[in-house]
Amino acid sequence: MTAVWPRADELGLLTDLYELNMAQAYHLDHRRGEAVFSLFYRVLPGQRNFAVACGQEHAARLISELRFPEEQVRRLAPLGFRDEFLDWLAGFRFSGEVRALPEGSLVFPQEPLLELRAPVAEGQLLESLLMNYVNLETLLASKAARVVLAAGDAPVLDFGMRRMHGLEAAWRSVRAYRVAGIQATSNVLGGLTFDLPLRGTMAHSYIQSFDDETEAFRRYARDYPGTTLLIDTYDALAATDKVIGLVRDEGLDVGALRIDSGDLAALARAVRDKLDGAGLSRIRVVVSGGLDEWKVADLVAGGAPIDGFGVGTEMGSVADAPSLDFAYKLTEYDGRPRLKASPGKPVYPGAKQVWRQYDGEGRLVGDEITAADEERHGEPLLRTVVADGAPVVPPPDPDAARERLRRELASLPAALRGTARADAPYPVSFSDALEDLRKRTLDRLP
Amino acid sequence: MTAVWPRADELGLLTDLYELNMAQAYHLDHRRGEAVFSLFYRVLPGQRNFAVACGQEHAARLISELRFPEEQVRRLAPLGFRDEFLDWLAGFRFSGEVRALPEGSLVFPQEPLLELRAPVAEGQLLESLLMNYVNLETLLASKAARVVLAAGDAPVLDFGMRRMHGLEAAWRSVRAYRVAGIQATSNVLGGLTFDLPLRGTMAHSYIQSFDDETEAFRRYARDYPGTTLLIDTYDALAATDKVIGLVRDEGLDVGALRIDSGDLAALARAVRDKLDGAGLSRIRVVVSGGLDEWKVADLVAGGAPIDGFGVGTEMGSVADAPSLDFAYKLTEYDGRPRLKASPGKPVYPGAKQVWRQYDGEGRLVGDEITAADEERHGEPLLRTVVADGAPVVPPPDPDAARERLRRELASLPAALRGTARADAPYPVSFSDALEDLRKRTLDRLP
């Protein structure tokens, strides 16, 4: 069988070579000090006002389960790794602690999504896997949340499988989309695995396979009472008339019409008017085709009579920002704070906490990033999910994550919920203690 | 264990719901006519002059092996599918023909990467899987080929694992990168699986874990003679002096220095001068950090003394064009040509052939897309890879694909090999017979 995914026992080898090189160097040099690594991003891209943290609790569980089977470790021997290190790898079991934001949290630049405390070789070894894993779901959830906000009360349906970067991305996207508030997906396995309702109707090819469009509609709606018919294969308005005739004359049960091309606002209005004029207000109008959050927002702002948005390519490929500049930085080693000199890229040393602060009316007013041992009013977001190498909380619950996101977005100033970059970013400050620690650490740099 | 990928036997369910709906409709209505589906893209995005076809031969093998195990089929029953259809699915075995471009071929708008001829329900059922599978590798190979061209004689190394869209994308990217001419990868499992050399050195975190940068360099180069040292953790020029001292005074064996931030051109020049001044011309200088084809081309054009480019985020997330507008269109059903009316998006009916034409000096002069049964001079690119549901050629050979791409790129007009959109696109024409067929088919549309 042509391999589609790596085998599960190969997961540990899906890493960057330098992680293994560094882990071996630490091991051979007996550098066993405890390290703190922090996973965060620095800059919001483009028009973004927030990101949605997703995948980090799953990633933490994953590393608690990560092993390097003997058979896999042997594949590294020809690369020059020493037996002593390979033996260590074969016995690898994460022994450290992971603190993470709850999934579905809004996350702003500089805020750790995840912090790991472990012997340095362990923390280093896990870098590539953690970064890749968190990157995908955070990208997808962040983008989808914008589309959901833009759609207002209308549901957003995921149609993006074909344009995502591979099959795993398509599958796992559905988990992120559930957190983001997407209402349904066309992705069968994704929906079944991650418990999101499935939706799907017909493609142009089905219509094309008939010599007569009316016959195609008739057959499909008989096979699927209440289905959505795709009306833009030849002429959306002529097709609407055909559907109206079928419903009126033959009692065909049609739930919705979908328009996938052309001037969606004008077509939706014209189709709606035809349906209403025929007394078929119960038939919904849904649109798709090249939609993103800006186009959805324009359609909503223009009052187009649209009952649902099918969104694919732009959301699935995260077209406006297909990467976030995630960093996984060593911030403490052997009890001492650590920094890289990064002109223009401030990094703060040490283990941290993020405090999310609300006013008396429950509106979000800002976050403060403090050292891990400081106390503040507000909600401390980083919580321990893995201790002594084992999960200490249940697996993340997508419904809880979705509800958290919904609640946090509703509490956000309106300008930050829009599709454009707000004039003022969400306020994130660093505690005086962290600023002091940063200065003292910088002063000590070589 | 936390699931990272779907199980292999779940692959068939990784599809869009409407594919199953349509397949069932065809089945229930006894519409068993043979269909031709064509996979192509319409528009080159942004500054692109070509795409590199990759993944389509693998995808064809994959569908020849696709099965729907009983256990998986049963998961569809609650969605309302009928037993008659589920039985058909449980016995599914692709029975048709697939013709595909050789992997590593340049592919231009409107040219089929793959054509499938099969009973319509089969061809429809496979749409989402084929599109997703080919999308990823074609995106990655197309982007990477641009970076390789920009780098000229200097090798390009893939550092992108952490920023790709998931673990499968990171793994499978290495296959596409091998085709594209990338010289090495940091991705261990990808390199081992797809036989691309592995490269990797050290991260800033390793340096940071030491109180003294010199000691970090000393230890690492002792552990890894000939290694590449990362010199921009604090100050690249001061670090260069430290390395020179270690090499001269202690005989440390260092192969290269890597600069990952700052003004790469100026730093590379300054580091090169210091090394040359110390008689260490043998130590190479490599750069990384936010590189894409434009930045690489600028560095090369400016004569920066750089011996290798490590490229990650931009290449791995295909930042300038994270999707191609692939379409999978029904072009023939039951012996009759088919079209969708697509204003501004011309589609041609029927099965096709792509003829690649060279002049007497071996330079590419243009392609002609003809009906499948026409004959031309030139190289016919679509060849049968699956017949009667079974592969009829060996699995695609990445070395042959890489060589084909190298040869085709070398034969391309220079303007089309650059980073900017050329004034004149690569010439692709349609045969008179296809134009006629299109007109006749349009005239017959409902």
Automatic annotation (TrEMBL), chains A, B:
Keyword Isomerase (UniProt): no
Q: What class of enzyme is it?
A: ligase
Look up the EC number in the record and give it. 6.3.4.21
Q: MF terms per GO, please?
A: glycosyltransferase activity; nicotinate phosphoribosyltransferase activity
**Keyword Protease annotated:** no
Q: Which InterPro entries match?
A: Aldolase_TIM, N/Namide_PRibTrfase, NAPRTase_N, Nic_PRibTrfase-Fam, Nic_PRibTrfase_pncB, Nicotinate_pribotase-like_C, Reg_chr_condens
Q: Which GO terms describe its biological process?
A: NAD+ biosynthetic process via the salvage pathway
| Record's signal peptide | none
Give GO cellular component annotations, separated by semicolons.
Answer: cytosol
Positions of the Nicotinate/nicotinamide phosphoribosyltransferase domain: 157-353
The biological pathway it contributes to is: Cofactor biosynthesis; NAD(+) biosynthesis; nicotinate D-ribonucleotide from nicotinate: step 1/1
Record field: transmembrane: none
**What chemistry does it catalyse, as a reaction equation?**
5-phospho-alpha-D-ribose 1-diphosphate + nicotinate + ATP + H2O = nicotinate beta-D-ribonucleotide + ADP + phosphate + diphosphate
Where is each Nicotinate phosphoribosyltransferase N-terminal domain found?
13-135
Stated family: Belongs to the NAPRTase family.
Q: What is this protein called?
A: Nicotinate phosphoribosyltransferase
UniProt source species: Alloalcanivorax marinus
